[in-house]
Please model this.
Amino acid sequence: MRSLLTALTLVLASVVVPVPPAVAEPALALTPPMGFNNWNTTGCDINEQMIRDMADIFVSKGLKDAGYRYVNVDDCWADATRDPATGRLRHHPVRFPGGMKALADYVHTRGLKFGIYTSAGVQTCAKTMPGSLDHEEIDAQTFADWGVDYLKYDNCNNEGRPALERYTRMRDALRATGRPIVYSICEWGQNRPWEWGEGVGQLWRTTGDINDTWSKTVEILKLNAPLDAYAGPGHWNDPDMLEVGNGQQTTVEYRSQFALWSIMAAPLLIGADLRKVSAEHLEVLRNREIIAVNQDSLGVQGKVVSQKDGHWVFVKPLSNGDRAVALFNESEVNATISVAARSVGLPSSVGYTVRDLWSGRDFQSAGQISASVPPHGTAVFRVKASQDWYRHAPAVDTSVDVEASVPGVPGTITPAGEPFVATVTATNQAPIPLLNASTSFSAPAGWQVERLSSDRAPVLLTSQSVQSRWRVTPPAGVTPGVHALDGSFGATWVGHGRLSRPVDAAVLVPAPGPVGSVWASDVRFTTERSGYGPVERDRSNGGYLGGDGKTLTINGRTYAKGLGAHAQAEMILYLGGRCTGFASDVGIDDERDVNQLGSAVFEVWADGTKVADSGLRTWRDDAVPLSGSLAGARFLRLVVADGGDGVRFDRGDFAGARLTC
Model:
């Protein structure tokens, strides 16, 4: 018997039992991390006082109370070399003279958590400090000794070694320290980390870096949104930081990013200098009801249930059975976007409670979740089938729409002295009828307003609308700029008296058209949008900040005058019939020629007629002349369109562009 047991013992000892791979700590990041990272606002211009200030502002401005916890330092915090005696990373002696442990302690005493950065390469991305490749164990232990709670692990200077190998080694090193450290895989989505990131880190970047432009926000949204199946408690898709408050986008656009990142269960890491963020943008960041959607314990990433013509509907199931719904208008004109409650997974009900998470108001609905959404805007709601729906005010969709008179030019561009038609519409979305319903309209003092038609409904049933149409003429000589239009809806809510809703809109009165022969870059265009930063005058597109381009250069030929843009770009100029022609050379700028990328199509439009088209132009091509007649045209529209291979490096020049007027 003893010999049998001995033999069995020897057999068992010879069997190699596979050791299961280490897994990410399941108790970490059960909801998406919320906090701050300095990179998008300061880059390497960072110091310990700024990080202390951020921690203090978290407390003093209510961000901590709203749920923000992590105060994270990005690149450039370390000395250029490791400690020769210990091999450890050490703090930069000028930027962080007090050391990283003291800084972590400062953050911790405020009830917050401290995050740090390195790269899975031999250097970090800024190349100012060593990376952690082949130093995973000692760096992880150093971070743990300092009291680090969060590690962003970048992907630069990685010597071509496999991503999974590099990121798994740091995972194992972090776990070996025994300290719970949230692990952010900043791999930029190059190796599809959503397919292997769960069990390695708690979050992984799905895209390249964001910047403070609307086009980049939308580009990243479109990459991250389809990955909803990979997200959940402890493993999140990360579409990069919030740009809210950095100053290059509108409040409408910042609200959209915040709402969309929240419904996608994305990490909410503020990327703006909180010492400079306006009160208006702080209010966006502190919206607790939208944060509650992001932090919901069910941990589901919102899913796109419809997307057509730039009109998006996202739905996110919540732990109590409610649904969060976001209605996003990617387009350049106002749009009414709707979805049925049953289509977002709610049960059948006579009525629903729809809570507007921007206004904090509850409404009753018969089952349509609907809103008039401005260009680039997002309405966000929390919806439930409820028994007390009747306690809330009726949901009524309202809008003021301005009819476009020129194809391709938004109707909201309204020249002085030229009439336009505005339509005020109100639709009853409540289960109950409304009585004596009507709409009205008013324009600024001195504007001519003529009523063309006006409905009045004695009884306005569910899904029925009332409408009025008005011919409006801004007076000649009115100050160019944005002017408010005011509509209103009124009806009787039985048992509650008179119900009224304001309907706000605005139009843009352009400056008078140019006179004489002028350089296009010397003219103030009515509207401009460019795919990466602003349209530049007499310089190439550059980066996303204004004034950072170079001399306009197309395949070696330089130009002193012209417009530098980036696909997708559109520039609209009111001409008022004063001009006869436009001429320019066009082509892909040499600015990023080292990348050997870039292609675009250049178009010139006179009102709704395309008068010139360059065909496909690539980074290899010389400049080509482009000209067209503008005789009698009210508007000029210049377009830099994608060449069909994506818009990366599509920096296009209208070089030497000139108007004859």
